[in-house]
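Quick question: what would this complex look like in 3D?
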Amino acid sequence: MSRKIDVGKRILSANERYALKNSQLLGEQKKLCLNMISSPGSGKTTILARTIRDVKDKIKIGVIEGDIQTDLDAERIKATEAPVVQIETGGSCHLSAAQVSGALEKLPVGDLDLIFIENVGNLVCPSAFELGESGKIVVLSATEGDDKPVKYPAIFAKSKVLLINKIDLLEAGAQVDFDVERVRADARKLNKGIEIFPISAQTGEGMNRWYDWLAESTKNLQGD
Amino acid sequence: MSRKIDVGKRILSANERYALKNSQLLGEQKKLCLNMISSPGSGKTTILARTIRDVKDKIKIGVIEGDIQTDLDAERIKATEAPVVQIETGGSCHLSAAQVSGALEKLPVGDLDLIFIENVGNLVCPSAFELGESGKIVVLSATEGDDKPVKYPAIFAKSKVLLINKIDLLEAGAQVDFDVERVRADARKLNKGIEIFPISAQTGEGMNRWYDWLAESTKNLQGD
């Protein structure tokens, strides 16, 4: 008796298996799921809280909050009345697909149009771990410097959308040295199709184009 | 014939072995070595370039520049005429002690008083890898938010100095919501002895206290 072994089939890592499971669940239910990645302090939570409030009549949003420690961000999302599940990674520098799988079980996925995953604040490690999301959103704030796409290319190459946040600080007469056009050009070199929205989650400037993109992407998926 | 095995002796990891080697080399030569850690874009390179220029008559500084990709930061340091060695980690989210050991061989260590290691921009991973340094310096910029010591405690607990950078933006009439006293209190809860210097590497505000600390620390070590 002989056994055939399919050598062409690559063995999936545990993370890839969970990512596939998440992606299948989200695909079957036609839910858009966006994995938001940035350095600490670029404004992810502020963007999410404002987005949830501003689009609540059109798009039902739930949030998975990843943090190394504390539930401060989850509390800020709770204040918007959106459903939120907190994951504390306890030191780990990125969310895993298994953690997201557990969180998806706790969210009322059927009632939602869109699920945001707010990853741990880190521009490097989260870009290497697929969570089964529909796409990645990278946030860069204007005070972080315009050299970041060149210095941290992986996440810019992989994202569907780049949000350039805190653009109100470019106009406040403050000494912020940041060339939006340089960022745009460098990000496009890495990723021809990336959508780029300069915004201020603080003042609301530029947010409408981002909301339009979310509405369109949600509709496209549900209309499949 | 029997062999004795010392079971009390913990086996060192490769990183710990190199860290010990670096620490011995630096200790024998009485050189201060500071490992600078922060998120991308908090201003590490700007702080270093200004510090090197401002103290060059008193303290001879060399720099080890860690980046995932590009030598943009090393070029900025070269412009100050300080000796600099670039390490490109090629995707890795932190410097290793072995990389630093190689870089120390290329620096004219004997001619220097102080060696700065500018780690990869990442508030999480570099805090877990000892490089053999004399101490860690954490940089937090005012635009990153005042909740960072609570959310990313490890690096604040381990650092000798916290530089709160970009404080000029707090006074520019911009909408930067950052409470220096909250950061001070939260950092001290994690680390009673941490030195805290609010600075602006852009305008020079507050930099003199930081320079005094560097001069004092260098002198103390050399006077041993």
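Answer marked as accepted. The domain at 14-222 of chain A is CATH 3.40.50.300 (Rossmann fold).
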